[in-house]
Known about the structure:
Helices cover 26% and strands 22% of the residues. It is built from 19 helices and 26 strands.
Amino acid sequence: MKKKLLSLFLASAMVVSMAACGNNGVTTNNAPENTGSTNEEVGDSSQEGSEQGGTKPTTPSGQLVIGSVTDLKSDFLPGWSNDAQNQACYLLLYEQGYSTVQFTKEGEFVYNPTVVKSHEETENPDGSKTFTITIQDGLTYNEGTPITARDYVFQALLVNSPEMGAIDGYTNTSDSVYVGYEEYSTSQTKNFKGVRLVDDMTYSVTVKADELPFHYDLYYANLIPYPISVIAPGCTVEDSEDGASITGEFTSDVLQETVNNPQTGYRYRPLVTAGPYQFESYDTTTKEGVLTVNPAFLGDYKGVKPLIEKIILKTVTSATSIDELRAGTVDLLSGISGGTEINGGLDLVDEGIAQKADYLRAGYGKIAFDCSVFPVDSVNVRQAISYIIDKDEFVRQYTGGYGKTVYSFYGLSQWEAVENADWLESELNHYDVDVEKAKSLLTEDGWTLNKDGGEYKEGDGTRYKRLEDGSLASLTINWANTPNNPVSTLLSSVLPDAMTEIGMELNPTTIEFGVLTESLMHRTDVQYHMYNLATGFTSAHSPWYYFSMDDDRMGLYNQNWIKDEDLARTSWAMKSIPYEDKEGWVEAWKEFIKTWNEKLPDIPLYSDQYHDFFTNKLKGYEPDGLWDWRYAIIDAYIQE
């Protein structure tokens, strides 16, 4: 089986996409498309109704309203929001445009021929590796400004700069893999040694020796253009033997105005971009965003230009999304999960009102733990909670037969999971319901007292534990969930009684998803013990970042805030395996998956079959597990 990758991250970003569990607008990429009719078996892939029909237009026309239960935030520059809808905008405004390396529908990383005129890879005597890229002539931003290698080098310098890092809330979405990163990012030098401007149309990046070998090393060559004249007016990029640098008045105060000004900053109004679509507007009240075709765009890696003139990103609710598709107030619902909503969409298809495509998911719905917060910093407590949830019954009720239980950090569509399905079933702990096991884990962890400090006995209610300072701590779990969410509703009907039975108390809080993510990222004073969320994996599937113990990985990458040596070690072991060594990759993956299954930073609830439902006027739309709407929309068109 050809090695499959998962969903493409944004330029130089390797993070897990995050969305509310039960979301019908999760922007995650999945893999082979299947139609499942039972909880035990998922059948063949299916696409219906996406036939061309009539003549394909030669110029962009029409509009498409895309509904998602995840709000679109006002952030249109990577570094602030990791939510699904914002990720989609990043891809359409930047990454799916003139990035030098792109992810293909076939599941491979390739140099982008629309952008790259020539390339060279050099293995240096010190073990580092240099990628040298010459870009094509004739590339411009949407407003006509020519793009040169300076724009690419500027992006690398900007996102790693201490000046950008000083802006409120900014999280570097790049990486520290290039030679000289530490010195540059901490203001020790103005030159980034591993990033060079070779000439007007050529740049190079040099990857540190200790970052190699790397499973996806071609991705290290990838940069995208950022307009220096807009973000750092009056500045330019210069090169020296010590590396490239930004010269001119490049300060945090400048960026605070050009990037972070709420009315005009590039973060909120990126009017000069080079992707297939360009920013038109965002309504802070309705959370609705509008993108229009970039008239200067020369095509993606296949040379394809978008043919849908306008894309409107709209917030919908799970309860009403199918009704909105029926009424025509939305045109596309992507990544729908859950039996109720899927069956509602299939009714529209049967009535001839809509079309559908379905595919397995590269990710899973979950209860996510913040493993930095007591008491879920204990693996015993996390395992105890897993032992009281009937995951199989949850899958049956929630997915309506369109999903399966998973037991570790994988989704049903990942090629590793597909090829090793028997191993996953036989070798991993399923955490089948076992109340006595849960109780013994809590006793072992020291939760042996009642509220008065006496020995805990059945019927005493909530368990307590004596802390080192002599105080008593109650076994209370604060759970953040989101409103109008069927997963929240289902968990709310199960968790309280199950927790009470083992001496645990649940304290649920329903908050908007944006507030939830701010808490999860530790951007507020309130952190919860657990959250119901969903995870989508990436094309450059890199668990060594997700479970790194480095402080600078916490939050955006390591969203569980877990520092576990075994998880860090087994995930890191995958990083250096050559891309061609499939057997070695699988063996390392198995060790990591088994370790994760024991440490349990999440409770995986289900990996399911996603459905896209869309208007009959949308033609040529062919998403699959690796190619969700953000990619497939480039090949589609509107026929009224």
